[in-house]
Write a structure and sequence with these properties.
single chain; alpha/beta; Rossmann fold; 2 domains; seven-stranded parallel β-sheet; six-stranded parallel β-sheet; 17 helices; 13 strands; 44% helix
Length: 368
């Protein structure tokens, strides 16, 4: 088969490395179309021989560049005669499905993986008014609509009129990598300035409003235990705001902004509790990686996260409930046996989200 992957920005392609590598090993041809102006496609794809095509699409739905992207994709798919065009990210997916209407009549199949609809239970009204009608319309031009969490799957089955709706739980993670990484905890803690005997909380993700780090900072200020430290791993536009929050709560010595890191697996193994307070997610990779590392979880009770963590397997809190997060963290800090028990449950339940399982499920979708 000849396959084209389409995404809005190149960094998204980092999620599909193992799947695309296997497709190429099986003899398929894989090309990639994306906007590389903000972030580059992982170099692996060039090494594998994938052709990379530049698109004009951008994250904002109201930019004229997206109309240009429709024309670019249309030209690309009509010239290259793909068997499957697989689009990801909302804007690229809309552009692609409009662009592919002609080639679908010639046998090209259009796949769309929705990594979390922008309309979801509890989403702002504007999200429903803007995104729902567009997705409803574009579903009519979609051969296979793939959803990655149960809420989206149920809604798509009921309301989205794609030819076929499938459920594939996420993009997959390297379970063995996170489960078996070796690290000198004491040395790693010294490196990042954390006492060896501290209880270490960790959150991994972009510093954005959606990731909701502020709630953990506020919760930490309510807990009367000065030997709890909080690692925030990631970059983003809210760095200065979050640093200000930390300063206002007088937590400068106990909250550590680590920025972008390549040693996330080692940081998880050097921590005690994963905090994942996001406001909305599709199916969170960072949470799965923490679970594979054997960490007990305190997370928000939202779509995607509740697919991964059942009540009793971790602590689930309302997204803006500072007291709830503080109580959940305190409960785990004070009960080491519960930490171990929930960490073990995390590790056991995440196996079904391994990259090997997801590749099999995705191949099955493509070959139906």
């Amino acid at each position: 088969m000849k396959i084209l992957y389409v995404t809005t920005i190149g960094i998204t392609m980092g999620f599909f490395k193992e799947l695309i590598k296997q497709l190429i090993e099986e003899g398929h041809t894989v090309d990639i179309a994306t906007n590389e102006s903000d972030s580059k496609v992982p170099e692996l794809y060039r090494e594998l021989g994938c052709k990379i095509y530049q698109l004009s699409c951008c994250r904002s739905p109201f930019r004229k560049e997206n109309l240009t992207a429709v024309r670019e994709i249309k030209k690309l798919v009509e010239e290259n005669h793909y068997d499957i065009v697989h689009c990801h990210t909302p804007i690229a997916a809309v552009c692609t499905r409009f662009a592919c209407q002609k080639v679908r009549k010639s046998g090209t199949r259009v796949f769309y993986t929705a990594h979390g609809f922008h309309f979801y239970k509890g989403a702002p009204l504007v999200n429903w008014l803007v995104y729902y009608p567009v997705e409803w319309l574009c579903a009519h031009f979609t051969d296979v609509l793939i959803t990655i969490n149960k809420e989206d799957y149920a809604r798509a089955r009921k309301h989205m009129h794609a030819k076929r709706v499938e459920y594939v739980p996420g993009v997959g993670i390297d379970v063995e990598k996170f489960a078996n990484v070796q690290v000198d905890r004491a040395a790693k803690r010294r490196e990042i300035g954390v006492p060896e005997d501290a209880t270490v909380l960790i959150s991994v993700g972009e510093l954005s409003k959606r990731k909701n780090h502020e709630i953990i900072i506020k919760a930490l200020s309510q807990i009367e235990n000065n030997n709890i430290h909080y690692l925030i791993v990631g970059e983003g536009s809210l760095l200065q705001y979050l640093q200000k929050c930390v300063s206002e709560q007088h937590l400068e010595q106990r909250v550590h902004f680590l920025g972008y890191r390549k040693d996330v697996a080692e940081l998880y193994k050097s921590s005690d509790i994963c905090c994942f307070p996001s406001i909305h997610e599709g199916l969170p990779v960072a949470l799965m990686e923490a679970m594979a590392s054997g960490l007990p979880v305190v997370c928000s009770k939202i779509r995607g996260s509740i697919d991964l963590i059942n009540e009793g397997e971790g602590h689930l809190c309302d997204t803006l409930d500072t007291d709830g997060f503080a109580q959940a963290i305190s409960c785990l800090v004070e009960d080491k046996e519960l930490q171990l028990k929930m960490g073990k449950m995390s590790k056991e339940s995440v196996d079904k989200y391994s990259i090997e399982t997801i590749i099999k499920a995705m191949n099955k979708c493509m070959k139906k």
